[in-house]
Design goal:
The protein has ten helices and 14 strands. The protein has helices spanning about 5-25, 35-40, 40-55, 70-75, 95-115, 155-160, 185-195, 230-235, 240-255, 270-275; strands at about 30-35, 60-65, 85, 90, 120-125, 135, 145-150, 165-170, 170-175, 180, 200-205, 220-225, 260-265, 280-285.
Length: about 290
């Protein structure tokens, strides 16, 4: 225990968090989890602790996860080279089987186990369970990469109502039984929209939207979503941030109240965002929110 932090100070911190706890208790918060926060073991432990803490105070947490590095690693072991077009993984029939094994198997069940070890109750789902994510082929050039056509939220709401943390891997399916690799950010946006989430938290490897690329001190703390176009036009939103922000706007259009792009490399960033005055990252707010 840190002796420099007195019990009185600890109590003060909890008191200051009370208004935020009241705001989010009973509300749905979707967390898109991936990137460095998933690879770094100590960060992974902290993210799981944050999620269990929020669950214990009554927040209805839904965790949507990726697993790109693990997919690439297994593909390389099997002698397959990863290929990307505009940031999307080209996924042939053999590759979609690998995606399914890694995401719905190893990664998903590892996260379920971690949540349980931290004292939470979790059940893992893939987008194929209960036809949670229905999809169709996005582009023949990409192979079995899916475009979401429908989200069936009942498997998730049933788990939430019974006190579980749903942990969702982003594999979808169509009516013909084909499996699809679904972009994790897109899946999180559609799932959060279907659930009418209070907030979608997108964990990334950068601080948020920066006015000057690579300078974290130029972080934009908040924008309204109709301001995003001017940021595109001026080049502030560029490169890999473009699809991230597009997913955030999609989530708001689908019914999410607001979305945060945050740096998943910062310890306890989720708690900082939800339970403090300052928050973390860039908040994208609907115009009437």
């Amino acid at each position: 225990m840190d002796k420099t932090f007195s019990n009185a100070q600890r109590a003060e911190v909890l008191t200051q968090a009370l208004p935020y706890i009241k705001r989010y208790t009973g509300k749905i918060v979707v967390v898109k989890y991936g990137g460095n926060a998933m690879i770094n073991e100590s960060l992974k432990q902290q993210v799981m602790e944050d999620i269990v803490l929020l669950w214990l105070i009554g927040v209805k947490i839904v965790l949507v996860h990726g697993g790109g590095p693990e997919i690439t690693e297994l593909m390389e072991k099997l002698g397959k080279k990863a290929e990307f077009i505009n940031g999307l993984r080209v996924t042939d029939k053999e590759s979609v089987d690998i995606v399914q094994m890694v995401l719905a198997g190893k990664v998903n069940k590892t996260l379920v186990n971690l949540i349980e070890m931290k004292g939470g109750k979790a059940i893992g789902l893939s987008g194929m369970d209960g036809r949670l994510i229905e999809a169709e082929m996005k582009d023949e050039k990409l192979g079995f990469v899916g475009k979401i056509t429908k989200v069936n939220k009942k498997p998730v709401t049933d788990l939430l109502e019974n006190g579980y943390i749903p942990i969702i891997s982003t594999v979808g399916c169509d009516r013909q039984g084909n499996a699809y690799n679904i972009n994790g950010d897109t899946a999180a946006a559609f799932i959060a929209g279907a659930l009418g989430a209070e907030r979608l938290i997108m964990m990334t490897d950068i601080a948020g939207i920066l006015r000057q690329k690579d300078d974290p001190t130029t972080l934009i703390p908040e924008i309204k979503y109709d301001e995003a176009q001017s940021l595109y036009d001026s080049g502030v939103i560029s490169g890999g941030m473009i699809p991230k922000v597009e997913c955030c706007i999609e989530a708001i259009n689908q019914g999410v109240k607001n979305v945060v792009i945050m740096d998943g490399r910062v310890p306890h960033a989720i708690l900082m965002e939800l339970l403090t005055d300052e928050g973390a990252g860039t908040l994208i707010r609907g115009n009437n929110k």
